[in-house]
Amino acid sequence: MSKLKKFKNTQMLIATLPLVALIALFFIFCGVIQTYGYRLDIYLQIVFNEAVVLAVVATGAIFIYTLGTFDISLGASTLFAATLGVTVYNKTESLALMILVLFATGIACSLFNSVLASVFNIPAFVTTVAMMSVLSAIASQIITTDGGALGGISIPSSVVEPYSGIGFKAMLLIIYIAVCFYVFQLTKTGRRMKFIGGNPLCASLTGIKANKYTIIAFTMAGIGVGLGAFLTLTYTPSVTTQTASSIGMNIFIAIVFGGMPISGGPRSKIYAALVGGFSYMLLNDILEIVIDSSAAYGITQVISALFFMAVVYITSMNYRTQALPR
Amino acid sequence: MIMSEPILEMKNISKRFGSVVALDDVSLTVYPGEIRGLIGENGSGKSTISSIAAGMQKANEGQMIFKNKEWNPESMIDALTGGIGMVVQESGTIAGITVAENIFLAELKLFKNKFGLVDKKKLYEEAGKVLQEIGIKNVKASDLMGSLDFQERKLVEIAKVMMKKPDILVIDETSTALSHDGRTLMYGLIKRLKRENKSVIFISHDLEEITTVCDTLTVLRDGKLIRTFEKEEFDDDLIRTSMIGRELQGDYYRTDFEATSQEEVALEGKNINYGDKLKNVNISLHKGEIVGIGGLSTCGMHYLGEALFGALELDGGQVITESGKEIKSCHNAVSQKIGYVSKDRDTKSLCLEASIKDNIAVAGMNIFKNNAGMITEKNEKDYVQKQVNNLSIKCSDMNQLVSQLSGGNKQKVVFGKWIGCDSEILILDCPTRGVDIGVKQAMYQLMIKLKKQGKAILMISEELPELLGMSDRVLIMKDGEITKEFNRSKDLSEADVIGYMI
Amino acid sequence: MKKRFAKLISLALVGVMSAGVLAGCGNSNDTASAAKDGVKIGVLVADVSGEEALGFRNYYEEYIQNNYDVTFEYTDALESAEDEKAAIEKFASKGYDAIISLSSSDRAQQIETCEEYGVYYAIASGVLDDEQYEQYKGYEHFVGQIGPSNETEFEAGKAMGEYYKEQGISTVAIYGAFIPNPMHVYRAAGIIAGLGDTYGGTDDMNGMIGQIFGDQAVDPSKIEGDVEVVAYLQGYGDTTTDELNAAIQKAPEAFLSVGMATTFFAQTLAQNDIQFADIDSFTEMNLDSMTNGTLTYLAGKYSSSIGPVFALVMNAVNGNVIRDNDGNAVSLSQGYLVATDVDSFNEYYVTDNGDTPIFDKESLDTIIGDAVTYDDVKALVESK
């Protein structure tokens, strides 16, 4: 049984690696900022603001990824929700109504995806590809028509000013992660989702209704989108056609950086997006500071890509070593 | 017995996977015309040693001599060309192409016409001959591989190897995939090879089968060669004891020969129709009863198991429980306390990449959730640990991945999943398939215990001995219909039953 | 397995240790690196590859940086309002003195962020729309804006259209670049108006641009008039290859572009012998297109046209925040210069090249200093 013990140790180590990496990156980041003599307090806020939207949307997305499917329209949904939210605010001047619209839109987009997927039995990622184009096209239409020469639409910054503090955002983040943790870890729902992701056929033969959990997963992701759109607006109260555009891809990276297999299943972890999202942003900022970007455009992307592959290699290591022939 | 020159000598073979020793200094000699059985529990090394001979993997230490020459095959194809062919345990065919293309996969260029295209007609003709050669009748060379069932695929694989006329044929656990006529066909082949002075290495779990088929029998345990028995030394108990390293304590099958059950009908299928797989099937299962269903693997009995569990969309008929609830989906079935163990364990009954804990707990959450409906670590662990203990699942701990378990322990996990959540009705499709003898015994005893507790058990099996050994009633199916029903009795023999199957 | 395990542990240790080392050395060093050397200005850019953008960058990084005690840092391509805000915050954290913006996702927010962090801010190569200017002109750190206004963009397009109408051309193709980018919308509307055509029944600027924003493109079927627009395309050069080929099939007499045509299409247009016009900069590549290719009209800015903005920022950092006569942030409009042949092009190109920009050190020095006033700046900008 000694091989099993070793295997387990390796697995444990791999499981803690993302967290170790986050802590290491954090210290490196602080070190770099200090070395260059920049203002750490501002820089930490920047990282937080950059990462918080990603962490929230990606945490919602984990429910979808856990089922073994994925949704690439979440960035576009965030844009779309923010667009409708701003439009509604400008028409009604009601913050409450705006927030309602943000969440309703996020959930509606997500539900639409899942219902399409389950009613027509199309793989969810196919419907999300279509949704991505449709949503960003509609949002662009609204933004350019209403925004005109300004190139974007916005609400007065005073509206969201009270909610732009780091403390408030951190609180929202914690509440959302706590709710997700509860659903994911402490309810039948979360367990069943992981099981579906691991083996949908077996899940069905265990009496688990995949459609029901697909809808729940997309709803959770929709809430993340709504919250993400709200957090985006508290950072910059304007929406342009490129708002949240990087989120779609970054979700993927954050989840992998967080140590969760992109195929979902039982090894899914709800905190992966939180850990991975912050790690990724820290890494980006470190590279941005250390490497002179004017030397070569995209060099930071190349380095983070290499880092990304290293993470994938390490996290997949335990699955390869287990492949012992009999 | 046969005192000619050995055709294959494997000397002091060792094989390690990382720190796991799969083979430890094993020597094996095979003579021409010999049918050599290899038997042992899962993980004993019987597949490993034969796969080394057949070029599937390389030994870390040791030497092989085949036909008086040093033998170091680079690949299975290399080995097959050289004269050792192996029919593997897991399917080695490709689903998307035709049978003929599978058979001639490595040699399609032989069939290229002057335009460089494959001459389909010639290909099908040749493949047809190959199939005929070993007596496969209901598979056409032009059939798509994916349209064949498990048994037919296996037979095609055998044909593919036999076409090369190997000097040694290695058959690894193939018979568990074959029904009666498939086996008959295979036994015929083995006899023919023997007549031609060719050798066979035959690997099986099934003690009865292996002692019937083989001339000599080598027992492996934990990577070591324990003993080789000559035909005249064959003794079931002795072989079993050397396989598991201890005496098999207690009973194997049921010792009573009374058909017993309670009055209440636990589950009833009425006029079940499903394509041409199930035709007007009526079946009832009582509490405290074990009903066995037997037949050829294509007779529809596996569909019947799924139909009763609500996993099929029936064309007609209904499945009703004791309380009058109709089972229309797996979800219904599970909420009516029905559990289903699939024949296809790894793909249908388990989530391989999940832990033992996850697999067992998933069906029992309604039982161990706390008052607030929450799933707590402690409750879950207690629940799972109970199953692990009750079923003696061999594992380092419950967080071990199921994929790392042996076949028998995997099956125990599946049982744990359904027994833990108090299933009243168990539908077991080939519950002892690919399970070694020690676990088999445990399963049978468990079924007896469950019967006594008043659970209803439907056991679908391709192995007649266990059907006769365990069932209160045996139903025989053929072409989607139930053709005969036997009650449990001391006098019932396999010969009585087989006639209704074919 | 054992080896791999050890590898993992060492990897983790290396990470943690290097973190510690870096953090440690940071603490001991921080007084040394806090010392200021010269003025530091961050530049927000959305376009990092266009001819005009490269010309601007070259002017700041080569000419200005060599002649003044100043350091410029450019951002990566900023895609959205969030990117812009984060970039400003990063500059603020690095202790930068000022920000010059060439990026326009959300300028209102840029101004507010700079105000929040107490960093001087100026807009180069463009201006706010009137309403926004009214709102922010009193902001303490908003130094000002110098560049073509939206009306100027419209006029630049209009002049191009008129030029070809006078040449007697009856069919054209229009390239709308990155519509609905406002700058490109105004220019495209101007071109249509200049050709003497109407868009959706109007030739009024506001009427046209409103429709183009709504359509997110120029819809050729809505164009009516003497000069026929036979083809319209927009987007990045690589995505429009098929459309370009289709447009060439229609054999327009001229290909009128609102920007970036040289970068994307010069070669293909030359091969098909179709003359084209562009609004861009006086750069080497455009000169080559005019000399050897089919570029027949270029409305351009000097690469050094962003010089006066630098002067405004420099003054502000040094304590002389220049305000206009009403006490508001400076707002000056810069027009385009038009070259229709190699000679006129050369005139602008040679004079604004490398070491001898139009806004050279000598002229800038006249508007950098403690005593410089709004009128000095205005006079210099309008003189060129």
Task: Describe the overall structure.
The complex is a heterotrimer of chains A (326), B (502) and C (384). With 326 residues, chain A is mainly alpha-helical. Chain A has a single domain, classed as ABC transporter involved in vitamin B12 uptake, BtuC (Orthogonal Bundle), CATH 1.10.3470. Chain A contains 13 helices and two strands, in the order H-H-H-H-H-E-H-H-H-H-H-E-H-H-H. Chain A has helices at 2-36, 40-66, 74-92, 95-120, 124-147, 157-160, 166-186, 188-198, 200-204, 210-235, 247-257, 272-290, 299-321, and strands at residues 152-154, 238-240. Chain A is globular. Mean pLDDT of chain A is 87; it is low at 320-326. Chain B has three domains: 8-244, 3-Layer(aba) Sandwich (Rossmann fold), CATH 3.40.50; 257-337 and 424-502, P-loop containing nucleotide triphosphate hydrolases (Rossmann fold, 3-Layer(aba) Sandwich); 349-422, no CATH class. Helices cover 33% and strands 24% of the residues of chain B. Chain B has 18 helices and 19 strands. In chain B, the strands form four sheets. Chain B has a six-stranded mixed beta sheet with strand order 6-7-8-3-9-10, sandwiched between helices. Chain B is globular. The two termini of chain B are 38 Å apart. Chain C is 48% helix and 17% strand. Chain C has helices at residues 2-33, 51-67, 81-93, 107-117, 130-136, 150-166, 182-194, 205-215, 241-249, 261-271, 284-292, 307-317, 342-351, 361-365, 374-383, and strands at 39-44, 70-74, 98-101, 120-124, 142-147, 171-175, 198-199, 223-224, 228-233, 254-257, 275-281, 295-301, 330-333, 337-339. In chain C, strands 2-1-3-4-5-13 form a six-stranded parallel beta sheet, with helices on both faces. Chain C is globular, with a radius of gyration of 24 Å. Chain C starts with a helix and ends with a helix. Chains in contact: A-B, A-C. At the A-C interface, helix 1, helix 2, helix 5, strand 2 and helix 13 of A face helix 1, helix 3, helix 4, helix 7 and helix 8 of C.
Mean pLDDT of chain C: 85
Portion in helices of chain C? 40-55%
CATH homologous superfamily designation of the largest domain in chain C: Response regulator
Strand residue percentage of chain B: 15-25%
Going by CATH, the homologous superfamily of the largest domain in chain B would be P-loop containing nucleotide triphosphate hydrolases
Low-confidence stretches of chain C: 1-36
What's the CATH topology label of the largest domain in chain B? Answer: Rossmann fold
Count of beta strands of chain B: 19
Shape of chain C: globular
Cα separation of the termini of chain B: 38 Å
Q: What's the CATH architecture name of the largest domain in chain C? A: 3-Layer(aba) Sandwich
Number of strands of chain C: 14
Supply the number of structural domains of chain C: 2
Largest interface: A-C, 68 and 63 residues
What's the Cα radius of gyration of chain B?
24 Å
Gap between N and C termini of chain C:
73 Å
